[in-house]
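Chapter review: from sequence to fold.
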Amino acid sequence: MWLCIYLSCSDTIPYFPKKSDIIGNVILSVSEESQWDPSQKPRDDKNTMSSFFSFSFGCRVNEAEKVTLDKKLLEMGFLWSEKNPDFYIINSCAVTGKAEREVRQHIYQIRKKFPKTKIVVTGCAATNWVKNSLMVQGVDLLIQNSDKQSIPRRLMCHPEPRIKVRGKLREGSSPDVRQDAPQDSSPDLIGIRMTSKPYSPDITNYYDKFLHSGRLMVKIQDGCDRFCSYCIVPYLRGKPKSKRIAKIIAEIQSYAQSCHSRSNPLRLSETSRESREKNLDSRLRGNDRKKLNNDINILNEVILTAINTGCFGKDTGETLIELIDAILKQTSVPKISFGSIHPWSITDEFLEYYRSILPTNRFIPFFHIPIQSGSNTILKLMNRGYTIEEIYRKLKEIKKINPDTFIGTDIIVGFPGETEKEFQETYEFLQKAPIDKIHVFRYSPRPGTTAEKFKKIYDESTPEEKRRRAKMIIEIKSKANNI
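The token string follows.
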């Protein structure tokens, strides 16, 4: 027997469903009118495919997972629809308290806009809510990161009678649920395979901002074992898990080869193609315009995404350098980049490798390196494992190798223990460091983290102090850009 305790706080709306069930890692809300049992087998009726829309919060890993899930659902015959979809899937974020509030606000807005739509929430916020037995009003299904692979099967099994005929199987095809699907948080391990011929995907309305600009997000790694004192992600993503290089290469090659194929569920539809061309008319002329028309369905860039690039290959014995080298040698993708590359990945060996591949002109000179603070005192409290002197040397070396390299970073202000002295250290570091763009976050305690307990030792900065410090840091680059 399960005892669920619903907690209420200023930014959490308690939800008391008429019935609730917990299946594996999933909390499922069930109304009296609709008994949805995700553990049941798919229906035999082939004419019950429905529509979906997906939305991603937070990091680019979430975006990569969303694209992979979209592809699976489209291959299964689901239709992409922004207008009153049968299922609305949210890949959520919980890196800050603000991020979680934004997810809850979005759920409220979608429930109000589409009263009958089934809302499915996965990702880090959903995992946090499941772990703490919290229900959010308006959510029909919460799925932890570790159970994302079950989403297509659970949607296939939904018996809601209002679902209309959306698509048809090709003759001789049928969905087959893999009962032995691996229990892994990687979204490419979704436990559905197709027997015989696949569905003919209807991609008339499908849109993804990255794919439609020729950029493919590829998730190379999940999980983290750094346990920075402020970060909740290791508790929600689990231990580091890397995708093998051979599998990453196969994924890139597969997408590149299918870009011109109409059977590719993520290929630009004619409608989307026309829309994109119309938006670019005012910016491109002559030969550039003609070239884009010819290449509009070609893969222009692969963006490698990871929860922690420093953990890539720990479990497989491979390295980040080997991955980049394999992509350069085994694929013809014009450009390669990282969503973020973490400080622990910027080794002397990596810097030398960066220097060696510059002549290829295929590695985009962009590094988003989340440093978090410019004070050694705060870095130590954060458990970051490096000093500001080490980081400064690496940043200078990157710019020395290629002065055109664009460097971005993340900075947290108002961390417990950050007095005016430590803030000034960060401010002065950022003034002299060769950093081109700064994202500023105001610290918010995350439940269960080490830093949450710091409030017993250190006074936390007031909201006013955090706002002032954030504004000062933002103005550093604003002033520099106006010089």
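Two observations follow directly from the output. The CA atoms of residues 120 and 141 lie 5 Å apart. The first helix runs from residue 60 to 75.
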